[in-house]
């Protein structure tokens, strides 16, 4: 299943923009990003974008 939050990151959106798009709090976005980054083994948005775009991972 695709993550709308990671899709927002790959689209270049800020946490606030992702929260507004999904009608959730910015804190919820930050928490989701933190958990997803842990699962992916990345530490930055740039690393996450690279994995999703260049390795065909499901956002």
TrEMBL record:
InterPro entries, alphabetized: Sig_transdc_resp-reg_C-effctor (IPR016032), Tscrpt_reg_LuxR_C (IPR000792), WH-like_DNA-bd_sf (IPR036388)
SMART domains attached to this UniProt entry: HTH_LUXR
UniProt superkingdom: Bacteria
CDD domains: LuxR_C_like
Short name of one Pfam family: GerE
Classification via PROSITE patterns: HTH_LUXR_2
Domain HTH luxR-type: 1-56
Keywords: DNA-binding, Transcription, Transcription regulation
Descriptive protein name: Response regulator transcription factor
Natural source organism: Halomonas salifodinae
